[in-house]
């Protein structure tokens, strides 16, 4: 008997986003913009970071990317369940996990090759140990215990995709309990300091036991659909979100602007800096949730801005997130080398930022055209 027959009928319809409403381009646009922001933030001493979220609050594009990825997985694998049953879901999650794993290994090799060719940034990119001890380091990379700088998120996604089939099964049956269990794990991480083994320093830049909460939250949001929307779109929630965003804006700017720093009591400033990104500090989580509430109010599904050239470029990048993320890591390294070897001036920073985003858009456009042509011929 096909496994789709065994699914209880009440589960059908748990993914209302799939009922003929079409693809929500806001998801692709947000993920594409997050990819741009991640690239800009990773280039050291880059004026382009003032265009991103990092300087204006407690969270940054990483939270957006993780949440949107969870939402996208719920849609994609939910559609696979409706069409192919759980066998299709399991095969697709395993295949996608393998794709990300291969991309991670290839990106690791590409990073060390670039470091070797450039003759610098081995320490900054955490590749010196790979150059000095390639055999042992590659073996650790193969089991996700070693990761060059900026590749950690791929290792996290390998694990999350690998486990998404049972997660989807739970979310479609007991969504609130599943989200509660995810939140409980997040709390336990902060209480007991739980993490996943890493090498050589035992430290994951993105602790998957903590960051899984945003991923699960994104999937839960898509599956629950309209049930949480009333309190998200209530005026009380909006006011609280705006107040928290304004508060975090003042605190974050005080870290970087001297006149503001003098206005903030030092005891208060020390409470909020530094925030623990590795374990997704609760203040970072709250800041992202406040941004999400504001976005829900300001960006409707049929927002006309999605048709502008800039947003179309972001949408294309969001639709090809894995190769564009890998490209962004390599562009980050190349930009860093240029800033060190040629010029670190303001004009060069602006040029590299614009050129990097343009390269990401051009690559995503090419990937879209390659994937569409076979379908057109068929």
Tally the helices.
16
Q: Give me the count of strands.
A: 0
Order of helices and strands: HHHHHHHHHHHHHHHH
Largest sheet: none
- The helix content is 55-70%
Strand content: under 5%
CA-to-CA gap between the ends? 32 Å
Arithmetic mean of pLDDT: 89
Structural class: mainly alpha
Radius of gyration: 21 Å
Overall geometric form: globular
Poorly predicted parts:
1-14, 16-20, 373-378
Describe this structure in words.
The protein is mainly α and about 375 residues long. It has 16 helices and no strands. The chain has a domain at about 20-225 and about 315-360. The protein has helices spanning about 25-40, 60-120, 130, 135-140, 150-160, 165-175, 175-190, 210-225, 230, 235-255, 260-265, 265-270, 280-300, 310-320, 320-340, 345-375. The longest helix is centred in the first third of the chain and has 58 residues, at about 60-120. Residues about 1-15, about 15-20 and about 375-378 have low confidence and may be disordered.
Secondary-structure topology with pairs:
Blueprint: H1 25-42, H2 61-118, H3 128-132, H4 134-142, H5 152-162, H6 164-173, H7 175-192, H8 208-224, H9 229-232, H10 235-254, H11 258-263, H12 266-272, H13 282-298, H14 309-319, H15 321-341, H16 346-377
Helix pairs in contact: 1-2, 1-14, 1-15, 2-5, 2-8, 2-15, 6-7, 6-8, 7-8, 10-13, 14-16, 15-16
């Amino acid at each position: 008997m096909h496994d789709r027959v065994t699914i209880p009928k009440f589960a059908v319809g748990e993914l209302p986003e799939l009922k003929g409403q079409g693809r929500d381009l806001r998801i692709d646009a947000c993920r594409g913009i997050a990819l741009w922001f991640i690239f800009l933030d990773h280039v050291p001493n880059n004026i382009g970071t003032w265009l991103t979220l990092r300087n204006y609050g407690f969270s940054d594009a990483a939270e957006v990317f993780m949440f949107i990825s969870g939402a996208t997985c719920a849609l994609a694998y939910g559609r696979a369940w409706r069409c192919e049953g759980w066998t299709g879901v399991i095969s697709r999650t395993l295949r996608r996990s393998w794709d990300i794993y291969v991309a991670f290994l290839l990106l690791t090799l590409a990073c060390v090759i670039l470091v070797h060719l450039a003759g610098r940034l081995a320490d900054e990119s955490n590749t010196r140990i790979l150059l000095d001890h390639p055999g042992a380091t590659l073996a650790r990379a193969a089991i996700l215990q070693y990761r060059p700088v900026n590749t950690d998120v791929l290792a996290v996604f390998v694990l999350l995709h690998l486990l998404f089939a049972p997660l989807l099964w739970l979310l479609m049956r007991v969504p609130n309990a599943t989200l509660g269990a995810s939140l409980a794990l997040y709390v336990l991480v902060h209480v007991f300091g739980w993490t996943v083994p890493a090498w050589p320093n035992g430290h994951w830049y993105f602790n998957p036991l903590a960051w899984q909460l945003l991923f699960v939250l994104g999937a839960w949001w898509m599956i629950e659909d309209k049930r949480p929307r009333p309190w998200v779109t209530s005026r009380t929630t909006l006011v609280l979100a705006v107040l928290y965003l304004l508060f975090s804006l003042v605190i974050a700017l005080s870290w970087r602007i001297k006149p503001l720093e003098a206005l903030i009591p030092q005891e208060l400033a020390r409470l909020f800096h530094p925030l623990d990104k590795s374990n997704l500090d609760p203040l970072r989580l709250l800041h992202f949730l406040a941004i999400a509430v504001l976005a829900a109010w300001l960006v409707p599904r049929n927002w006309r801005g999605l048709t502008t050239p800039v947003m179309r470029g972001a949408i294309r990048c969001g639709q090809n997130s894995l190769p564009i993320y890998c490209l962004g890591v390599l562009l980050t390294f190349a930009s860093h080398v240029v800033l060190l070897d040629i010029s670190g001036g303001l004009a060069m920073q602006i040029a590299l930022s614009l050129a990097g985003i343009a390269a990401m858009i051009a690559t995503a456009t090419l990937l879209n055209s390659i994937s569409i042509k076979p379908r057109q011929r068929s």
